[in-house]
Design goal:
Low-confidence stretches: none
Oligomer: single chain
CATH superfamily: endopeptidase domain like (from Nostoc punctiforme)
Shape: globular
Structural class: alpha+beta
Distance between the termini: 21 Å
Number of domains: 1
Strand order of the largest sheet: 4-3-2-1-5-6
Mean pLDDT: 87
Length: 163
């Protein structure tokens, strides 16, 4: 039985392009991307085009779903609305790959965005995460359940059924 994807859950991705491989090598991560599930089957993520909201089903295949069991909050909704459209940070990605902390500002990379949302939802963090792997470790340390969704059909079946 699939765990349902709920708002606040983490979605970790391991793509298969050369750029995805490079990100995993440079960041020493099993994953090259992380997004956060929102209400209504959507997710927020930071990509080279900026912070965006789109359907979870557009994430692709081979997704690790982390059931955070965190209640979604109005503060998280307000934060997400405030950052949509803000630019992606190539600099923060490079810094993460070199082991340096991100430069906090109006530019985002995926792990920084995801960890900020986790923090708003009540997860105490000493700093914002630099890599998708750090987000995965935070969730593992909290005892969150991980499930692998290898296909688009599995992802769609884990989404809540909207009336």
């Amino acid at each position: 039985m699939l765990l349902p994807i709920q708002a606040g859950d983490i979605l970790l991705y391991s793509g298969e392009t050369p750029v995805d491989d490079l990100i995993r090598v440079v960041t020493m991560s099993s994953f090259n991307h992380v997004a956060v599930a929102l209400p209504d089957g959507k997710m927020v993520e930071a990509l080279p085009g900026g912070v965006t909201i789109k359907p979870i089903t557009e994430m692709g295949e081979s997704v690790w779903h982390v059931a955070t069991e965190l209640p979604w909050s109005p503060a998280a909704t307000a934060f997400v609305k405030s950052v949509v459209g803000e630019p992606y940070s190539y600099l923060n990605d490079l810094l993460a790959g070199l082991g340096y902390p991100p430069i906090i500002g109006k530019d985002w990379e995926c792990a920084e965005l995801a960890s900020k949302i986790l923090n708003i939802l009540g997860v105490p963090l000493p700093k914002l995460s630099d890599t998708p792997q750090e987000v995965a470790v935070i969730c593992a340390n909290r005892g969150n359940l991980f499930q692998f969704l290898p296909t688009q059909a599995d992802i769609a079946n884990a989404l809540p059924k909207l009336g």
